[in-house]
Each structure stands twice: as C-alpha cells, then as structure tokens.
Amino acid sequence: MTTIISITILGVLVLFLGIMKKQSWLLPVILLGLVVSMILTMMEWNQKSSYYNDMIIVDNVSVAFSVVLIFSAFLIFSLAAHYYRGVLRPLDDIYGVMIFALTGAVMMTSYGNLIMLFLGIETLSIALYVLAGSHKEAITSNEATLKYFLLGSFLSGFLLFGIALIYGSSGSFDLQKISQFVVSCSGTYPPMFLAGLFLLIIGLAFKIAIVPFHFWAPDVYEGTPTLLTAFMATVVKTASIVAMFRFFTHTFNGIHGIWETTIWVMAAFTILLGNLTGVYQPNLKRMLAYSSISHSGYMLLAVVSFSAMSNNALLIYTLSYSVATISAFGILILIREAHGNDYFSSLNGMGKTNPLEAFCLTVAMLSLAGIPPLAGFMAKYYLFATALEKGFVWLVIIAVAGSAVSVAYYFKPIMAMYLKESNGVKLTVETPYKVHLICMTLMIILIGILPFLVIGLL
Amino acid sequence: MLTVILILLPLTLSLILLTIRQEKAIRQFALAGSLVEFGVAVAAFVQYKTSCHCNLLFTADWLSTMGVSLKFGMDGISLLMVMLTTFLLPVIILASFSHSYSRPAAFYSLILLMEMALVGVFVAFDGLIFYIFWELALIPAYFICAVWGGNDRIRITFKFFIYTFVGSLFMLVALIYLYYRTPLPHSFDFQWLYAATLTPVEQTWIFSAFFLAFAIKIPIFPLHTWQPDTYTVSPAAGSMLLAGIMLKMGLYGMIRWMIPICHHAVQQYAPVVIILAITGIVYASVIAIRQSDMKRLVAYSSIAHVGLIAAGIFALTPNALEGAVIQMVSHGVNIVGLFIVIDFIEQRTKTRNIGDLGGIALKAPRLAIVFMVIMLQRRVYVVDVPAHHVWENKCNHGRGGRFIVVRNGRFHPADDHDFLDRNFPRAFP
Which of A36, A68, A159, B429 is deepest in the core (most CB within 10 A)? Predict the structure, then answer.
C-alpha cells in the first residue's frame, strides 16, 4: 500500500515541479523517489496485509513484483536524461504520466478485487495511450497511439464485460469470494461464469500481447518513442502477466482444467509465432517487439504450471527479461540517434567502433536467447523446470524449439556488429550512460551466475 | 581444489588479457598462462595417481532448492580429457603466433575462455553444470571462427551455431526431465541421474535427446553437414580447437552421461548408431578422396575417425571403450598436428590445394617427414584399435555378448575406487 501511495505522491510532485519550472530537478527527484518507494516496498516484506475490504492485498508476491516494476522503471528513467537531452519543451507531463502508469502497474500486482484490477489496468492503459503519442510531430507516434487506443479501449470493454459476467454469476468482485464460489460449484459452472472467465482472459491477453491478440504490438512498439517502448515492453508486460498470474493461481487454480488448455494453446502459439515472425523483421525495434511477444509466451508457462516454484520462476524471468530488454533498448536509442534508423545494417561494425556498446548489446541478446551462464538462461531453465514438473512436456518442447528459432534473430545484431564492415558512424555516448549500460550488463551476468539471490525469495 | 583452479585460472587469465595492449605481451601472457594451466593439470594427475582415490572432488552449494550443486571432480576419463585439453592449448596458442590477428587481446582471451569451458565440461559431475559449460564452450568457439574466419564465414559459422545449439537445447529438456525422475530429494548430481527410474519409452526419448546433442557435436552422419565448411572456414586455431577438443565433448558426454543414464535404450539402439557411424566412415572417406583442399580433406577424414570412435563406444565392450578413449586422445593430438602442418604450408605457399603442392618434400624435407609421421600415426590407430574391437564386439553381440560397462545394471565411474587408476590408461574396469 505504501508503494502505491508513495509513487502517486511522486507523480504529483513531478507535476508540481513542472508548474514551478524546475525542469532540471525532475530526473533527480524521480530517481530518488523511485529508490525511496522501492525501499518502502521492501519494508512490507513478510507483512501480509490487506486494505479497504481486501481491495488491495499486499503479500510477498506483490512486494517482489512491485520491486521488479519499480526497478525497471528506475532503469528506464536513468536512460531518459540522454534520450530527452535535445528536447526543449517541458517534460514533466511525460514523466508524470509514466509514474502514474507505474502506479497502475503496481496496483495490478496487488489487487484483491476485480474492480481494483480493472482500475489498475485502466490507470496503466490510459497513461500509455498518452505516452505512445507523446512524440506529437512524428506521424508514426500518432499512428501508434491511435491504434493502441482504439484496440485497447475496445478490449478494455471485453475485460469489463467479463468482470460483469463473473459478478453476475458469483455475486462478488472479491477474489476470495469468487474462489469460494468456484469451489461451491463443484464441477458444474454456469455458462455465464465461463463466458466471463474467457472474456477476462481475452482482455488480459491483449494487454500482454499474446497471440492471437498481439496484432497491435509490433506497430505500436515501432511507432512509440523508443524510451516509452522500453517501458511498454517491460513494466507493462510484467504488470499484466503478474495480474494474470495472480488471477488464475489465486482464484481459479481449483478449476485449472477449464482454462489450462486455452492458456496452453495460447502459450504455444505465442512462442512459435513470436519467434518465427521475429526472424523476418528488418530492424532492431520491430525485432524486439516480436521478441517481447515470444517472451510473454514463455511467461505463460509459469501461469499454466502453477506450483510452489512458479512464483520464483516468473520473478526471475520478469527480472532478467526486463533488464536485458531495457539494456537492448538503451543501445537501440543510441543507434537511432546516430543513424536515424535502426536497420540491422546500421549496426555494422559496431564491434570495432563502439566495443563497449556492442558488448552490452551482445550480452543482452544472448541473455534473451537464453544462453548460459547469463540471466536469461537461468530464467528459462527455471521456467522449463516448473512446467516439466507439472508434466507439460510438449509445451516445453515447443518452447525449446521456439528458443532455437529465436537464436536466428538474436544473432542478427551480433553478426552485424562483429562480422560486417563498419560504415564509419560512431555512436556518441556520455559516461553516465555508459556506466548505466555496464551496470545492466553486469546485472545480467550476475543473476546468471548467482541465481539463488533471486530464486530463494518467494 | 585443483579442479576448481583448473576452471578459474583460464577465466581469470582471459579477463586479465583484455587489459593488455601490446600484441607481443598478449601472446606471451597467453602462452605462459596456458602452460601454467597445463602444470596444474599435471599436478592434478600426479595427485590422482599417487595420493588418493579421491577423484579430486569439490562440492559447493549453488542452487540447493533445485538440486544443483557445484560438483567438480575427475575420474580417469575426465583426467585424460583435461590433460589433452590443457596440453593442446599451449600448442594451439603457439601455432597462432605466426598469424597476426586483428584485436589479438580478444582472440587469445576467447581461446582461454574456451579452455575454461572445455575443462568445465570434462570435470563437471553435476548435470546442469555440465550443460552450462557445454553451452558456454559454444560462444567463444563461434566468435573465434566467425570473427577471424575466412570467406563466407558468417553463413557457415551461423549454421554451426544453430546446429549445435538446437541439439543441446533438447539435451536440456532431457536433463530437466531426468531430474524429476531421480530419487527424492531430486538432484542433478550424476549419481542421482544415474539412479533415475525410467520406463523404456522415456529411455528412448531421453536417449534421442542426448544423442542429438552429442551426435551433432561429434558429428555423426547424417548430422555432420556443418562440420567440413566450419573447419575449412575457421582460422587455424579455431579448427584446432573444434576438431582437437570440442568434438571430444560429444564423445565424452556419451560415455559419461548417455550410456549410464539410459543404458537400456543404448543397448537397444547401439546397432543403429553403429550403422550410422559406419555409414559416415565410408561416406566421409569416399568424399575425402575427392577433396583438393587439404583442410577439407582433413575435415572429412575427421568425420570418418570420430565415426570409428563413436562405433567403438557403442560396441559396449570394455576393450572397445578403452580403444575409443585412447583414440579420442590420439585423434586430438593428431588432428591438431595436421592442422598445424597445413597452416605452415598455407602460410608459406598461400595455397591449400594439394594439386599445387607437388614435390614439397624436396623443398621442405623435414616438414614432409613430420607430416608423414603424423599421418601414419593417425592411420595406425584407426586401423588397429577401434575397428578391430568393433568387429570383435559385433561377433560378441551376436552371441549375446557381455556388457561389462553396465555393471549391476549401470556403471559407476566415480564411486568406483579402482576405476581406471590401476592400469591407466585402461579407461574402464
């Protein structure tokens, strides 16, 4: 609870700073504020509590994922100084909206009531519609926000309708009560309830960009300003998948027979389609969009195979995915600045001209591909182990085949950087930005070598 | 402790190398470092032979919740492979001195990193740690071949990477699956993995997954198509690392993991594997005859030789296995020698085409003699050791021959105190 309050206060503070025309204070205040709210969140560790008639439930799962979310946001804000350095207009609105989106994301990890879930998703989504279009002059940004808004508001309707149908059959929005209702049904569920459940799945699947509700993702990712794409690909995805995870594992675990096959098939198709389509992308940003689609498929493995381990598996997966993705986006920002585009040919020869940045991108790509001993491998290993424990052998084999395919596109930037001749453009990077990239790279390596730092937590 | 030093030393050295600037210093440092590593390996060998039946075990907790521990140790086969690796590395580094590679620090650092991964593969007694080192070896190998390779290297090395990566992913699934079949509490420790209870169907699947990974690495026909191109296009050091040591990973993996874990499936499918291996021998030898590029010729002949080794392993008799292990070592030394000679010739004459090199013995008589010796040694082993055993065993097999490898249903390399040390290098009790 203190997390939501502190982040909201931070957002308001940022807007006030904007009014007082203290632009140079913005980022220091934000970074400091995020660290403070991260510490406040951690203080709630092991103190299970609920607020406002179980509207919000704070337990270790929600604390851990809130920390992942705030940490991802922290990493993204650390890139912001460089990204917006040439922008003259005030930035307090963009930063403020990002922080409010983060509030929504945190709400999605700690809801105890479907209304709260919807509020969280809407807080997040409406902020995102604004953010996607925040580069007003660019036609692509306008396209992104329009597509995202039209589809997003439509699918929010699905979600709300699903919640209404569940309320209609179970008589409550409260997850606890719905869970009791599920038990009391003892095998025969009203069709209205099932319809509600599946509409809810569709609504959430859209937010996570799961096949077949992923069509918005590549275009929106490509058009959105790169820094905010990183935000979408990490914070939003983590929050949505955690929302789905909480929802299914806490409430509907008793009837997993009903939704299991659906999620199974969605996961399989997401992994296959995300990876296969990723191979044919012409540029890095679209490739990362498809990579993020396929990774949401992997994360569904944790949802479908709920066990004591899947909390941990999802935690380490979201963390390592977020860090690697933000690191990749950090370099994507540099490439787009230097070249004006991010075709793979723009990366040519970066291994010679910018060895450090090339190394960071290589580590991020290898981690996303799941190559040991990096964080991505441990995360994937954990996820596969969780799924195999529950007997999802075929799903794991599909996931493994997907991983094999994914190497084909994760290696494209690596091959361009090290094996092709340079076109003479050198990226310009300030020292703090470099330090930030190095820190993320070290984190990827560190989580891979010392996974027990994360894994023992939940 | 020595086993841990064997792993950590090359890693540290490779990191230090990156900070050195002058090319000469880099080379000397790399050579000195690899010699020290060899010294440590010799020390481990002496300790193994003289003091103990301890297998130089080292155990530490890593991921106890998942049954993964850092368990390193060496029995006879590991020791032989580690000796081979650490012996060949200085040779390979020395052979690279005659080239002036761009970015030498990265080059030698990758070679040392590769050494770390290779040693790790050979000393890991824990399934997941083995897998991690197995994959880790692939990254430096890929970069060495791709960055410093010849024409069309991007496509060829990528094919190499994809092939090996796909194979090992399925091995990962098999390992995790096995983990849940081990006795409680589950563990990746090799003894636990050996003790996993598997139905025949499960054995077949796990055998297939392991076989895919190992057969691609070795490579066994028909999974060899990445190999000739990759050997040809790689820089000299890359070819030596791949052919001399890296393919031993696959053979070693078969002996250490595949045969003990799914022994029923191994017995069932051994004839199939032997047929594949022998097909590969004939096929690759016939193609080798037609090659004019010396490196390609060696590459194809290498497929034939490793086919023999694989057949020897799958003959499943102690003699054949012993022969296979001897052949693994001798093949490693030989093929590195061959690549060095070819590298010499190529540097002096700027060609690897056999047709253009007629009468080279007149210009360089001593080189020719060395070349001849290496070639002959190669042949002697090939004709003598495994082939003989393969056929002997095939006869045994027909008469319901003995499978001593699978003692009491499975064989126990590291437990077994008289394992290998009585009459080294007899590889099996």
Answer: A68
